[in-house]
Amino acid sequence: MANGDFRTPGFFRPLSDWTLYLNYLLGGFRPAGYYAFNILIHGINSYLVFLLGERLKWAGSDRERRQFAWLAGLLFLVYPFHSEGIDWVLGRGASMAALFGLGVMVLAADCRPGYLTAAAILYFVGLLAYESEAVIPALCAVILWMRGASRKEIVRWVGVLGAVLVVQMVIRGVVAGGVWGQYERAFLGMGWRQYAGNVVRVAMRLLTPPMEKARWVGAIAVTAMGVLGIVLWRKGEGRMAKGLLLMLALTSVFAILASVSTRTTESDRLLYLPSVFLCCLLAFGLVCPGMGQVWRWLLASIMVAYMVFFLEKTNWNWKTASGITREIVGAAGEPVKGKVYLINLPDEKDGAYIFRLGFPQALLIAGRDTGRVVVVNHFSRLEWLASPDSIGVEKIAPDEVRIGRVMVQRTGVDSLLVDGRFAAGREDRVLYWNKKKVVPLVVP
Fold first, then answer.
1. How confident is the model at residue 2 (pLDDT cuts 50, 70, 90)?
2. Which of these, 283, 244, 261, lies nearest to 84 by C-alpha position?
3. Rounded to whole angstroms, how far apart are CA atoms 130 and 369?
4. Which of 81, 116, 299, 360 is deepest in the core (most CB within 10 A)?
5. Is the pTM of this model over 0.85?
6. In what order do the strands lie in the sheet with 429-433?
7. Residues in Cβ contact with 22 at an 8 Å cutoff, skipping those fewer than 6 apart
8. What are 258-271's pLDDT values in tens digits?
9. 296-342, pLDDT tens digit by residue?
C-alpha cells in the first residue's frame, strides 16, 4: 500500500482494493475516511437486512412481519461477532460482498420482471469483493422456494447466477491464477474430523465471544442452535423456519471450510454473511411463537444489551491495538544516527492485528527510514498470555540480561549483542515493548 499497490496479496478482490485506493485519493492515509466507509457499508447492510425481512413471506400478521424485519435489522446492526469486517480496514471485503449479496436477495424476494438482470449485475460486482459471495445462487433458490416460486423460476434464477459465477471463476483463474486465492490450501488441507470440529467452532462463535479453554461453550452453542431450530421448526411457520435455517447453514459453509478462531476475534469477517440469517432466526424466534409484547421486547432488549456489550469490548480491543501501533511507529522513527533494534514487536491483540504483517509498510507510510529499523523478534499472542502484565529486564549475569525470550549481552563499553545475532554500537538504540509501552533498553 505504501508504494501505491492496493491489491490484497494472494487474493482477487479488486472491488475492495479499489475502494481502498479511493479512500487514499480522498484522504491519504488518514484513518477517519476508511472507518467512515466501513461503518457506512455496515449501516446500509443493516437496512438491507430490514428490507429482506419485510419481503420474506410467512403466515404472520402485518404487524408481526414488520416487527420481525425491524428486529432482524437491529440485531444485525449491533451484532458483535463480525466486527473484523468493520473495524479492520482490510476486512471490508466481507461487508462489501454482503452489500451486493443482500441486494441480490432483496430482488429475489420481490422477484419482479426484469429483476434477474439487475441481480446478475449486482452478483458479478459482489464477487469482485470477497469469495463468500459464491453462495448467493443457492440462497436465492431458498428465498424463491420460501415465497412459493415455480420450479421453472427457481431454475432460471439459479442458472443465470450460476453462469455469472462460472464467468467469475474463469476470470479469477486467468487473472489471479486461482479461484479462491490463499483459501484454496485451507479448503483442501483438513481432514473430516477438523471440518466436524469447525462446525462446532462456527456455532460457538456465532453465539458467543472468543474465549480460552471453553470447549463446553461450543457444545452449549451447538445445543442452543439446535433447540432454536427445533422450536422454530415446530412452532413457527414451517417454510420460513426451514428456509432461514438452511440459509444459515449454507452461508456457514465458507467459515467451516476456512475455520474460525474460538480464542480471538481473528476471522470474524467469515461470520458476516452467516450472521444475517442468525439475526433473522433470533428475530423470528421472538415474533413467531406468538409471545406477548412485553416478553417479546424484554427478550429483545436483553439480546441487544448482550450484543452491544461485546461489540464495545471488541471495538476497544481494536482501539487498543491501534494505539500500540501508533506508539511503536513513533518510537521507531525517533532520530538516531545508527540503527534501531526493536525487541518484542507484537503480532496482535486478541485477534486485532498490530504487526503480524505490514511493519515495513507502516514505517514507510509514516515517513520512517526502514533501513534503520531492525525487528529482533515478533511477540506472539501465546507469549502475550504467558508473560506478566509488564515485561521487565531480568539480569542473568553481570553483563547479560533477558527481556522475555531475548538475551542481550554487553560485549564492550558501548556495544551489545542482541539475541546472539545483532551487534548494537554507540550510535544504535535498542528498544523493547513491555506490553504497555516502548522502553529504551538499559543494560546494568
1. very low
2. 261
3. 34
4. 81
5. yes
6. 373-375, 340-343, 429-433, 438-440
7. none
8. 888 888 888 899 99
9. 889 999 999 999 999 999 999 999 999 999 999 988 878 788 899 99
Identify the CA nearest to 115 among candidates 140, 145, 146. 140
CA–CA separation, 256 and 217 (whole Å)? 17
Q: Residue 258's pLDDT is what?
A: 84
d(CA 321, CA 348) in angstroms, rounded, equals 7
Q: What average pLDDT score do residues 143-162 get?
A: 94
Residue 353: phi and psi, rounded to 5, are -65, 140
Whether residue 76 contacts residue 46, with contact meaning beta carbons closer than 8 Å, is answered with: yes
What pLDDT does 1 receive?
47
CA angle, corner 224, sides to 223 and 229, nearest 5?
A: 100
pLDDT in tens, 168-189: 888 887 776 666 555 555 555 6
Sheet with strand 422-424: strands edge to edge: 394-397, 400-403, 406-412, 415-418, 422-424
* Residue 372 in this model has a pLDDT that exceeds 50: yes
The pLDDT of residue 376 is 94
Distance CA 105, CA 122 (A): 10
Residues 110-121, mean pLDDT to the nearest whole number: 90
